[in-house]
Fold this sequence. Notes:
By secondary structure, the chain is mainly alpha-helical. The chain has helices at residues 5-36, 39-45, 49-82, 87-105, 110-125.
Amino acid sequence: xxxxxTEFVLTLxxxxxxxxxxxxxxxxxxIVAASSESGELANAASLINTDSEALAAAGGLTVIxxxxxxxxxxxxxxxxxxxxxxxxxxxxxxxxxxxxxxFLVGLLWIVxxxxxxxxxxxxxxxxxxxx
Length: 131
């Protein structure tokens, strides 16, 4: 019987949804950056050149932050596998990754962030009885 099964499952789900959030953020950043170069959008929205450049920069930053969030999602998958070895260390790392993701991709990180924070707190708070 795996005594850290709940933490494993929560961290695994957080990692999977974190990867989905990262991919979604990358796709939306690419779309924003690509649409800023569209002449049709500039004419329809009455964008001036500086607005178009700012939109392209925002899209580029979104892609960069989303790539970091994707890496954090992959890290959560690794933490889920290793959580049985050293629950305290990987609980702290899971807590940190869960909190950092909110600053990177904001609302896309709600589900993975909350699950990772819950799993991290459970790793730190729960005492597992020796068999």
